[in-house]
Predict the structure of Inositol-1(Or 4)-monophosphatase.
Amino acid sequence: MPANDLDLLIEAARRSAEVATAFVGGDLGVQYKAVDDSPVTQADLAVNTLLTQFLREARPDYGWLSEETPDGTDRLNTKRVFIIDPIDGTRSFIQGENTWAHALAVVEDGQAIASVVYLPMMDKLYSASLGGGTHLNGDRVTASATARPDEAQVLATRPSLDAGHWPGGLPKLKRSYRPSLAYRQSLVAEGRYDAMFTFRPTWEWDIAPGALILSEAGARITDGKGAPLRFNAQVPKAEGMIAANPDLHAALMQRRL
């Protein structure tokens, strides 16, 4: 069993990929959650079962927060907690696309300290540890230095560019999109895009793994109102998020206030 948390998450992500990819091209048993009508497949549940067994056996004293596990209060009394999205981008998975990911983090006292985002269909493994930098398939990556919003390429949904979100004036951005929030964050950490944001209430399992990958790549990440992100909250949701290098982040926030 890996001794440190990052190696443990990397092994867990690769084991998850073996489970998830076995479902590709077959019957996914798609169902829709009553709470928000979002889809869940048999692959999501199988990966969640694997991760629950593997990670909790390895670290039985850690708390647990996963999209596919009913939440409780025990995690609030633990120093460290796993925050997991077994398959981030389930709709992409259902449609046979390759931009879905396994997103895993260990959080200590509200701060992610080890994170992995793995896209098995592209064999892209992003990893970060607190103070250890961000890596893509073992190579160090950093966020871009683009400082001007009108020169920035961003990852965002169309509703995020509604004028109501930008009281200081909608910036002239070049917008693209990826279904997985974890992958959007990772692409900004890699420097392929300059910023990403969403202003909808956002579950912690969608953003905790990517938050450390971004910050260790030199990006600044906050909620959609500019407040610091803290994880393992009693209600595990954030008020959206915005991420970019510090100069671009500041310039975008000027338009948000």
Notes: The longest helix spans residues 5-21. The domain at 149-256 is CATH 3.40.190.80 (D-Maltodextrin-Binding Protein; domain 2).
